[in-house]
Amino acid sequence: MKILSVDSSASAASAAVIEDGKILGEMYLNTGLTHSRTLMPAVEAVLECSDTLLADVDVLAVTNGPGSFTGVRIGVAAVKGMADAAGKKCVGVSTLLSMAYNLLSCGCVICAAMDARCSQVYTALFESDGKNIARLTDDRAISVDDLGEELKKLKKKIIFVGDGAVLCYNKLKDVVKDIFIADENVRLQRASGAATAVYLTGLYEKAVLPEELTVSYLRPSQAERELNKKKNK
């Protein structure tokens, strides 16, 4: 099973190829350049350097949210285009789940958190036994305070991952015990985490045609919220 995966759901962009769980190659860029400039060159580079043709790939994967609305759309559009051109199926994977797989071997509760602004985080809880990841909650957008109340009840070692990790840790370190931040090299989402999640959870069995691939924003965009405000007035 060979998987090509991409992630552009936040500030960094990455592409990876894995085969039967082994990472053949990964390109990770966090330069501040727009994903429209970096994502496809990263895909081309990782395919070339791993000696992989798009025709050799069994399924394409992409983090389809939550995350930056524009970033998620770019990643999903890129995978749809490649899958359609190559006659392949594709699968969307939760950005939060992909981050949890960065800490597969940790043996702890993993709190994936992305800064959703408006005093909220996109978050989900997972637990790793060192070999497998179990989901404890659905993906959702909640306040950091509400997240803290949840974490207090766990009474286990908790590690934050994601670009909301520092935000959550700084706000909750005095009220929730035994919490930590993941090391920077595994803190943010990566395409290899998405591909690993797809492989180990069997998500590839749910692969769909390109036109069926959807996004999961968790909440309306700012433009939609502003429009709804005007309608309600």
General description of the model:
- The chain is built from 7 helices and 11 strands.
- 44% of the residues are buried.
- It is of the alpha/beta class and 233 residues long.
- Strands 6, 7, 8, 9, 10 and 11 form a 6-stranded mixed β-sheet that branches. Strands 3-2-1-4-5 form a 5-stranded mixed β-sheet, sandwiched between helices.
- It has 2 domains: 125 residues, Nucleotidyltransferase, domain 5 (2-Layer Sandwich), CATH 3.30.420; 84 residues, Nucleotidyltransferase, domain 5 (2-Layer Sandwich), CATH 3.30.420.
- It is globular.
Quick overview:
With 233 residues, the chain is α/β, with parallel strands linked by helices. Helix content is 33%, strand content 27%.
Measured between the Cα atoms of the first and last residue, the distance is 53 Å
> Which percent band covers the strand fraction?
25-35%
Radius of gyration: 18 Å
Order of helices and strands: EEEHEHEHEEEEHEHEHH
Share of helix, binned? 25-40%
Overall shape: globular
Question: Number of DSSP strands?
Answer: 11
Label the structural class: alpha/beta
Superfamily at the CATH H level of the largest domain?
Answer: ATPase, nucleotide binding domain
The overall pLDDT, averaged over residues, is: 94
Annotated CATH topology of the largest domain: Nucleotidyltransferase, domain 5
> Count the helices. How many?
7
- Specify the biggest β-sheet: 6 strands, mixed
Would you state the CATH class of the largest domain? Alpha Beta
**pLDDT < 50 stretches:** none
Can you tell me the number of structural domains?
2
CATH architecture grouping of the largest domain: 2-Layer Sandwich
